[in-house]
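Budget justification aside, the reviewers requested a transparent look at the raw inputs and outputs of the sequence design task funded under Objective 1. We therefore reproduce one unedited record. The lines immediately below are the structure tokens for a 204-residue chain.
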């Protein structure tokens, strides 16, 4: 009887030992899982780490903002002291413009889009006392009725400057402007020349 009990106890001990060798411990499994998680966390970059690295290498990244630049070749203009009708004004040394007279007329509608109505014709003279020819094609004339611009007429009532004016010569031209309803009564003329930044201003 004693021999049977001892044999049974030995069998139980052997079975317990086999079962312990075959089952992995929680500690081993936890270490393996931790190691795998650690490897994955170290390989994934932290959010924003790329931008931080670039800023450290080249400095802060500035956002692109639109900038305004001046038009190439553009120049400013300067009004000369206001003159009266009949007074010659030198726009450049040796080159003088003179508004000889202003007369009220009825502007005739000649071309498409033109409107007939009351207006003014300005007679202008230019004198060239310089040593070079003056390109009259570069002359521009504007007329305002108070704060309201006159409408230039391109019909036969307008005879603009054209061609080249030789030294020692003078030339005259006439420019017609339509006065719109409600426009002011004061007349202000501006004469420009493309070789000068100065503007001749005449008030009537």
């Amino acid at each position: 009887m004693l021999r049977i009990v001892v044999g049974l106890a030995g069998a139980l001990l052997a079975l317990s030992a086999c079962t312990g060798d075959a089952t992995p411990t929680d500690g081993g499994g936890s270490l393996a899982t931790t190691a795998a998680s650690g490897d994955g966390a170290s390989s994934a970059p932290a959010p924003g780490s790329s931008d931080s690295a670039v800023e450290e290498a080249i400095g802060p990244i500035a956002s692109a903002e639109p900038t305004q630049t001046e038009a190439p070749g553009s120049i400013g203009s300067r009004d000369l002291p206001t003159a009266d009708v009949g007074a010659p004004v030198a726009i450049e040394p040796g080159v003088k413009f003179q508004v000889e007279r202003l007369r009220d007329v009825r502007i005739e509608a000649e071309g498409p889009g033109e409107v007939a109505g009351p207006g003014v014709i300005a007679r202008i003279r230019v004198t060239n006392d310089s040593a070079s020819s003056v390109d009259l094609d570069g002359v521009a004339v504007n007329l305002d009725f108070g704060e309201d611009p006159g409408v230039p007429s391109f019909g036969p009532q307008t005879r603009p400057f054209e061609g080249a004016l030789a030294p020692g010569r003078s030339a005259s031209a006439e420019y017609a402007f339509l006065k719109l309803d409600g426009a002011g009564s004061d007349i202000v003329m501006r004469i420009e020349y493309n070789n000068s930044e100065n503007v001749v201003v005449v008030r009537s």
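Helices lie at 2-22, 26-43, 49-58. The longest strand covers residues 95-107. Computational costs for records of this kind are itemized in the attached budget.
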